[in-house]
Amino acid sequence: MLQFIVSFFTTPAIVIAVVALIGLLVQKKPVSDIISGTLKTTLGSLILGIGAGAIVAALDPITKMFMQAYHLEGFVPFDELVVGSVAAKLGRETALILGIGFIFNLLLARLTPWKYIYLTGHMLWIHAGCWAIALNALGLPSGTIIILGSIIQGLYTTLFPAMAQPFIRKITDSDEIAFGHGQTLLNVLGALIAKPFGNPDDSAENIQISEKWNFFRDMAISMSLIMLIVAIPAALIAGKSFVEQELSGGQNYLIFSFLTALKFTGGVLVLLQGVRMFISEMIPAFHGIATKVVPGAKPALDCPVIYPYAPNSLIIGLISGSIGQVLAILLIAALRWPVPIPSMIVAFFASGSAAIFGNAVAGRRGAWIGGFFWSFVGFLLSSWAMQIKLFGDLSALGATGVGFVVPDGIAIAALIRAIGALCGVGL
C-alpha cells in the first residue's frame, strides 16, 4: 500500500489524469469529451516529462565535463537522490506524510481562502522526505514524524502557492493556474529584491535585435548557441580521453559535446510543446474541481508551466544562474564550507523560473537579478545546510555525497530545527 501511494503521487501523468477525469465527470461532459480531455491532458503531461528527461540527460554529461575541466569536487545538490537514498530508513514516514499531507491540502483548499491544490508529484515526494528527514534529525519517534510532517506538508502545499500567486498573475495575465515548486521562496525574494531596480514595461520579452541578428529571437537558435558555448570549451578542457572513456561511449568528444548541447535545446522544445498541450486541456478539466469539489480551486503546477510566457527571461536565467553558481562556489570555498557541484539543471529550471518572476515585476533587469539571486543564494543555502548538518547525518541514512538544494525545504527545515531547539528537542 505504501509503495502504491508513493508510485501514485510521484507519477505526475497519473495524478493529472485522475484530476482531469474527476473534473470532467463532475461537469457531466459527454463520454467523448471525457475520454479526449483525460487522454490529451495525460499525453501533455507525458510529453512534458519526456522533454524534462531529455534536458536532464543532456545536462548531466555537460555538468561532468565542467567538473572535470575546472577540477571541482564536492557534494551533489540533488533533492530526489537524497530522498531516494534514505527510503530504506524513512520510506514509510515519507509515504504517509505525502498521502496524508495531500488530503490536508484538499481540506485547507476547501475550508480556507487559499484555494490551491498542489499537483507537482515529484515535489510532493521531495518535501515529504525533507520533513521526514528534518524531524528525524530531532530524534522524534516515527508516529510524531508522520503527524507533524503531514501538517507541515499540508500547510506548505497550500500557503506557498498563495505566496507566489501575485507574481503568477503578472506572468500569465490570468488567475487560472498557480505555481507548485520547491523554488518558490527564492523566486519571490529575488523578484522583490529586483523590483526597485527595474521596470516591468521594459520586459526581456520586448528585447529588440538588429535585423542581421534577428535569428537570435528564435529561442531554439539562441539557446543552442548558449549551450554550445558552455559544452564545447568544457569538452576541450576536460580532454578527449575523459569524455570518450567516461561519457560518450567512444564517440568523438567534440561531436558528442556538439550533439549533447543540441539535445538540450531539443528537450526544451519538446517540454514547451507538452506544456502547451497540457495547459490547454488541464484548465477546462480542472474547472470541474474548482466549481464542484473545491470552489475556486487552482492547480499548483510544476515550474515549466510558466516557460512559454517568457522564453527570453528563461534564457537570461540560465546565463545569470550559471554566473551566480560560480561566484557562490568561490565564496563557499573561501568559507571552507562543503562545495555544491555546479548544476546546469538548477541553472535552467530554478534560475530560469526565478528570472521569469523577476521579469514580471522589474523587466529585463529583474530577469538578470532574479536568475543570479536564485543560484547564488540557493547554493549558499545548500552548502550551509550541509555545514551545520541541518538534516542530521545524511550519510548514516544512506545519502552519501548528496545534499538538498530545494530552498523551501531548507528554509522550513531550519524553522523546524529552531522550534525544536526552543522546545529542548534536537541536536
Describe the fold and architecture.
- The chain starts with a helix and ends in a 5-residue tail after the last helix.
- The relative contact order is 0.17.
- The chain has helices at residues 2-9, 12-26, 31-69, 79-85, 87-111, 121-137, 142-172, 184-194, 219-238, 240-247, 253-293, 311-335, 344-387, 394-397, 407-422, and strands at 76-77, 116-118, 178-179, 298-301, 402-403.
- By secondary structure, the protein is mostly helical.
Distance between the termini: 33 Å
- Give the strand tally: 5
Could you give a short account of the major beta sheet? 3 strands, parallel
How many domains, as an integer?
1
Strand content: under 5%
User: Within the largest sheet, what's the order of strands?
Assistant: 2-4-3
Please bin the fraction of helical residues. Answer: over 70%
SS-based structural class? mainly alpha
Mean pLDDT over the full residue set:
87
Q: Which stretches are poorly predicted, pLDDT < 50 over at least 5 residues? A: none
Give the helix tally.
15
